[in-house]
Design a protein that fits this description.
- The structure is a single chain.
- By secondary structure, this protein is an all-beta fold.
- Helix content is about 0%, strand content about 35%.
- The chain contains one helix and 19 strands.
- The strands form five sheets. It has a four-stranded antiparallel β-sheet, with no helix packed on it.
- A hairpin with a 5-residue loop joins strand 14 and strand 15.
Length: about 350
């Protein structure tokens, strides 16, 4: 979830990618622990609501069902964590919401990671301020079924604890170097920060590792997802400048906490822009395309990578967020992306 700023950058012209993908079957079988994906039945936008913003989505599988967890905001600016479930990514349940924490004004920007004990960790930010008027801070809850959730707890409360410090977009990863936390700090000057739990648990204490050596178009990145693909640790994120999806390979030693501060060059994801999103101009300022990218289940599913992302044809409504919706694309190689046939 970004703070809206005027960005003097050119929108990236993205061509529709059609090559490199085999003709899909009507439905594909998932892996042994994944639901199916009815690719030919999916219609973009995949997740939408006429009266709400839908963005910042994470999509995971539990007990042969897909679960989408996302930022959900009405026209009055009330932000909640929305929940929907599906057997195949094409047919979705009605929206419910994670129980609201009365100590904060709202919740947004969820990341979902599975803990070693099998629980799912939903890390998120308060939005836009807590009841004392402070800027957003980081929180987490745990769940096994996305129906029942633990009570909310502050995440890394000892880091940048001053009320005027703004912390957003948390993402955790159980890495060879221990339990790590990525997040974005700041308002006008923003920075990607990394921390490590010295106890190896979500309760910390947390020590600050510093700012990873990542820069895209002279700015930082946001909306993080840590991935382990093909034997390599990677980071999927969104450029702060232009709101475009980018991917990085870990360049440091994964077994050493400081190694996670060193990353390879950014590789952009060229996701086709569809006719239903007629936005034009500057991405992140005039419209949104492929914002808040998230790799479904964090891995291949039946030979495909499925990428969900947020589009909005304008940035005027919903308090400057635009009427955001969630779409999906898929790829065999993380390079060539295709959208559903509809």
């Amino acid at each position: 979830m970004r703070r809206r700023r005027g960005l003097l950058v050119a929108s990236i012209a993205i061509a529709v990618v059609t090559g490199g993908c085999a003709s899909p079957a009507t439905a594909e079988s998932g892996t042994s622990d994944s639901p199916t994906v009815a690719w030919r039945a999916i219609r973009n936008p995949m997740l939408t609501d006429a009266r709400h913003v839908v963005k910042d989505q994470a999509v995971v599988s539990v007990a042969h069902r897909w679960h989408a967890v996302f930022s959900f905001a009405d026209r009055a600016g009330r932000w909640r964590i929305g929940l929907r479930a599906s057997p195949d990514l094409a047919h979705w349940s009605r929206v419910t919401t994670m129980p609201h924490d009365p100590e904060v004004a709202g919740e947004a920007s969820p990341d979902v990671e599975r803990a070693p004990d099998g629980r799912y960790v939903v890390a998120y930010q308060s939005f836009a301020s807590d009841r004392a008027g402070a800027r957003p801070k980081l929180y987490f809850r745990t769940t096994r079924d996305f129906v029942r959730f633990s009570a909310p707890r502050r995440l890394a409360p000892e880091l940048f604890a001053a009320p005027d410090e703004r912390l957003i977009d948390p993402a955790v990863v159980w890495a060879p170097a221990g339990l790590l936390l990525g997040f974005k700090r700041g308002v006008d000057q923003q920075q990607f920060e990394l921390a490590r739990s010295t106890s190896g648990t979500l309760r910390g204490p947390w020590e600050l590792l510093g700012a990873p050596d990542i820069s895209v178009r002279g700015d930082t990145v946001e909306n993080y997802q840590f991935l382990h693909l093909g034997g390599r640790w990677q980071l999927l994120a969104t450029s702060n400048n232009g709101n475009q999806p980018v991917r990085f390979d870990l360049a440091g030693d994964a077994a050493i906490a400081a190694g996670w501060l060193h990353w390879g060059p950014a590789r952009a994801l060229a996701v086709p822009q569809e006719a239903w999103n007629r936005g034009a101009g500057l991405t992140g300022t005039d419209f949104e395309h492929a914002n808040c990218a998230y790799l479904v289940a964090g891995r291949r599913v039946a030979g495909w990578y499925y990428l969900t992302y947020s589009d909005a044809p304008e940035k005027r409504t919903f308090h400057g967020e635009g009427h955001a919706v969630v779409a999906i694309a898929r790829s065999r190689d993380l390079e060539h992306w295709a959208v559903p046939p509809h």
